[in-house]
From TrEMBL:
A Gene Ontology cellular-component term: peroxisome
The protein's name: NADH:ubiquinone reductase (non-electrogenic)
Membrane topology annotation: Peripheral membrane protein
PROSITE patterns: EF_HAND_1, EF_HAND_2
Source species of the chain: Vitis rotundifolia
Lineage summary: Eukaryota, Viridiplantae, Streptophyta, Embryophyta, Tracheophyta
EF-hand domain boundaries: 381-416
Cofactor(s) listed in the protein's UniProt record: FAD
Its EC number(s): 1.6.5.9
Family of this protein: Belongs to the NADH dehydrogenase family.
Length: 580
């Protein structure tokens, strides 16, 4: 046997044998061989350690929340470059636009939820999920403190810390009670799947109580008075679903009390659905009037007790008592306490909601992003940068701006300040250069700084805050994941607009919301829709459009099949009135 063959065999033996076998082989060879073999292993170990050190460390991304924004971010994120962890007390994604349908059994609760582990499993299992709630964000040390929400015979430490390089806050918001006495104790909310299930049981309870013997008609009326506080999309859709449930199913089961049922919508504003087109708002009020749903506008609930609520009529200043059987409170949202504490840390304590810039990064906090209902995008005003825009465009430093110089920065202005484009559309102007025309509409060859300010002074009037809708949250999640996926590329080759207050360009284009329309189901197989291009559609055909859009927007084929099956079941057999 040659020396080379012997060492090859020894090497294989050392790679697979136990430590004692290795020692026996080593002792059977010469000291020279021992030294040579040891040196070769040492060199290999050093090379492996050096390779590991050269491998780039993955950035740690922590996502708080599994709602529309968080799930949209996770679905599109390229996790090959990041170590991703998800923390949420809810281990599923819920299709929240169908929550009003769950309250009456039109759709079952499990049909609109998808386990978050099913979603992240499709990403090769490289995303970790922990069922816990974030109780504190330590921005200075880039840590979050979490607490498990599993409280049944929990063994071990229920609190833990998580380090991050990038934090994506997508934990949504909570219901705004406006500190009205009795709301938390006696009212139902409609924000989570559990809320919808509680409402469904409560509706059946109201009917079962109303048919008990030895009750007066007045007591039965109170048990069957359903009050919805808030005339927004959620409150209106629930009122419509409840009316259909009672009319199509419950009156057949409880015929003795069918004339005692009453539904009331209380709205503090002058109209319900006031965020929709006026034509939709008016149609909804007329339809509710025909259906027997009472709409009380210009009223504010001041307190709620176990049997009645106190309502103040704004126009007259009158205060009246309204007895009820069940109340659903749907009056908007407010920032969660953990985010309020975080806002105090970063100097946003004077604001009502966590504020981000146009790239969804939290103002005053590097590496932290906020999406969806929990945050608001602060769009920068043109007039704040008007002097620097003029200086950037005035390349020859002449103190005046020619049309040609203005055209060179038009694209960057339109990208950086989207309100400019909205202003042009509303004023029916053909292009940005039309802003430079004089009062008589004549073109000017050049303008000075004062003329430039005068031309753009009304542009910021078109600025609007984004609505707290699933559509906005989903688009923000997709946008941010796209930025994360192209971070390295865009740092080398920036694609954003000019930095008017600094040199160079922004790495990314700012977030731009694209409104795809919104629906308002009004019951009786009729829906109102506000579509892009100022189109309004109302009626039975719009209801079928609603069916198709909501089915297509389901997060998985499983939930899509279940939702369509529930709709079909309801058409054939009606809604289930069991109290489960």
């Amino acid at each position: 046997m040659t020396i080379f063959s012997f060492f090859s065999g020894a090497s294989r033996a050392l790679g697979s044998s136990s430590s004692s076998s290795k020692l026996l082989v080593i002792l059977s060879i010469s000291s020279g061989g021992l030294v040579a073999y040891s040196e070769s292993q040492t060199d290999a170990g050093a090379q492996n350690a050096e390779i590991k050190q050269k491998e780039p460390q993955k950035k740690r991304v922590v996502v708080l929340g599994t709602g529309w924004a968080g799930t949209s971010f996770l679905k599109d994120l390229d996790i090959s470059s990041y170590d991703v962890k998800v923390v949420s007390p809810r281990n599923y994604f819920a299709f929240t636009p169908l929550l009003p349908s769950v309250t009456c059994g039109t759709v079952e609760a499990r049909s609109i939820v998808e386990p978050i582990r099913n979603i992240i499993k499709k990403r090769n299992g490289e995303i970790q999920y922990w069922e816990a709630e974030c109780v504190k964000i330590d921005a200075a040390n880039k840590k979050i403190q979490c607490r498990s929400v599993i409280d049944n015979n929990f063994v071990g430490n229920e609190e833990f810390l998580v380090d991050y390089d990038y934090l994506v806050i997508a934990m949504g918001a909570q219901v705004n009670t406006f500190n009205t006495p009795g709301v938390k104790e006696y009212c139902h909310f409609l924000k989570e799947v559990e809320d919808a299930q509680k409402i469904r049981r409560s509706v059946i309870d109201c009917f079962e109580r109303a048919v008990l013997p030895d009750l007066s008609d007045e007591e039965r009326r109170r048990n069957l008075h359903f009050v919805i506080v808030g005339g927004g999309p959620t409150g209106v859709e629930f009122a419509a679903e409840l009316h259909d449930f009672i009319l199509e199913d419950l009156v057949k089961l409880y015929p003795m009390v069918k004339d005692l049922v009453k539904i009331t919508v209380i709205q503090s504003g002058d109209h319900i659905l006031n965020m929709f087109d006026e034509r939709i708002s008016s149609f909804a009020e007329r339809k509710f009037g025909r259906d027997g749903i009472e709409v009380q506008t210009g009223c504010r609930v001041t307190s709620v007790s176990d049997k009645a609520m106190t309502v103040k009529v704004k126009s007259k200043g009158e205060i009246c008592s309204v007895p009820y059987g069940m109340v659903v409170w749907s009056t908007g949202i407010v920032t969660r306490p953990v985010l309020r504490d975080f806002m105090d840390q970063i100097g946003q304590n004077k604001r009502h909601v966590l504020t981000t810039n146009e790239w969804l990064r939290v103002e005053g906090c590097d590496g932290v992003y906020a999406l969806g209902d929990c945050a608001s995008v602060a769009q920068r005003r043109v007039m704040e940068d008007i002097s620097t825009i003029f200086k950037t465009a005035d390349k020859d430093n002449s103190g005046t701006l020619t049309v040609k110089e203005f055209q060179d920065v038009i694209d960057d202005i339109l990208v950086r300040y989207p309100q400019v484009e909205l202003y042009l559309k509303n004023k029916h102007l053909n292009g940005v250069t039309d802003l430079l025309k004089d009062l008589q509409g004549h073109e000017r060859k050049e303008v000075d700084i004062e003329g430039f300010k005068s031309a753009l002074r009304h542009v910021d009037s078109q600025m609007k805050s984004l609505p707290a809708t699933a559509q906005v949250a989903a688009q923000q999640g997709a946008y941010l994941s796209s930025c994360f996926n192209r971070r390295q590329q865009c740092q080398e080759t920036p694609e954003g607009p000019l930095r008017f207050r600094d040199s160079g360009r922004h790495h990314f284009r700012p977030f731009r919301y694209k409104h795809l329309g919104q629906f308002a189901p009004l019951g009786g197989e009729q829906t109102a829709a506000e579509l892009p291009g100022d189109w309004v559609s109302i009626g039975h055909s719009t209801q079928w459009l609603w069916y198709s859009v909501y089915a297509s927007k389901q997060v998985s084929w499983r939930t899509r099949f279940l939702v369509v099956s529930d709709w079909t079941r309801r058409f054939i057999f009606g809604r289930d009135s069991s109290r489960i």
